[in-house]
């Protein structure tokens, strides 16, 4: 599996995604996957995205990653991702919409729009709580 870095505002669901991916991979890959996967997931603090002065920290950290994941909470008002925020990075960026279980169809569509505007080339709709959409994410990370 690729080494991934999660970027998103505080409360977006980044840590929950990490926990879910680690749990899933125990099921998918068995034993040793925990340790390996534990080293493959880079969870970043929301402040890195919320404060412009910390963008540089995200860029530096992204050197460690193969894929960057922009995380957008479907239930959140607005987005912290500037248009074409992906251009800050030299790695492929995909988007994950979280909390689809708790969002309306309109909210989810808006979250997709935010991620598209940010420049994410592939977007996954998920709910870690309902366990939805995560297989596709795992598949993508294994294939790319
Ligand atoms: N309803 C719902 N809540 C979620 C989901 N994912 C995360 N949460 C909740 O959102 C809150 C913030 O999640 P967390 O992973 O800590 O966000 P982080 O700050 O981005 O790391 C927690 O209370 C989670 O339980 C989801 O798919 N659905
Ligand atoms: Mg967190």
Verbal overview:
It contains 6 helices and 5 strands, in the order E-H-H-E-H-H-E-E-H-E-H. With 144 residues, the protein is an alpha/beta fold. It has one domain (2-141): P-loop containing nucleotide triphosphate hydrolases (Rossmann fold). The chain has a 5-stranded parallel β-sheet, sandwiched between helices. Strand 4, helix 5 (105-118) and strand 5 (123-125) form a beta-alpha-beta unit. The longest helix is centred in the first third of the chain and has 16 residues, at 14-29. It is globular, with a radius of gyration of 14 Å. The relative contact order is 0.20. The model is unreliable at 26-37 (pLDDT under 50). It binds guanosine-5'-diphosphate and magnesium ion.
Please give a handful of descriptors for the protein shown:
single chain, alpha/beta, Rossmann fold, binds magnesium ion, nucleotide-binding
Detail the topology: elements first, then pairings.
Blueprint: E1 4-7, H1 14-29, H2 33-40, E2 41-43, H3 47-50, H4 55-62, E3 67-73, E4 93-98, H5 105-118, E5 123-125, H6 134-143
Parallel strand pairs: 1-2, 1-3, 3-4, 4-5
Helix pairs in contact: 1-2
This protein binds guanosine-5'-diphosphate (GDP) and magnesium ion.
């Amino acid at each position: 599996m690729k080494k991934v870095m999660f970027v998103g505002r505080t409360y977006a669901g980044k840590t929950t995604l990490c926990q879910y991916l680690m749990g899933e991979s125990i099921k998918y890959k068995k034993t040793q996957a925990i340790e390996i996967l534990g080293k493959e997931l880079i969870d970043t603090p929301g402040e890195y995205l919320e404060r412009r002065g910390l963008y540089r920290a995200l860029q530096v950290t992204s050197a460690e990653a193969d894929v960057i994941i922009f995380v957008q909470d479907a239930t959140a008002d607005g987005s912290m991702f500037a248009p074409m925020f992906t251009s800050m990075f030299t790695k492929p960026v995909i988007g994950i919409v979280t909390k689809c279980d708790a969002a309306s169809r309109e909210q989810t569509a808006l979250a997709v729009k935010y991620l598209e505007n940010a420049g994410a080339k592939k977007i996954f709709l998920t709910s870690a709580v309902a366990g939805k959409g995560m297989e596709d994410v795992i598949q993508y990370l294994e294939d790319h």
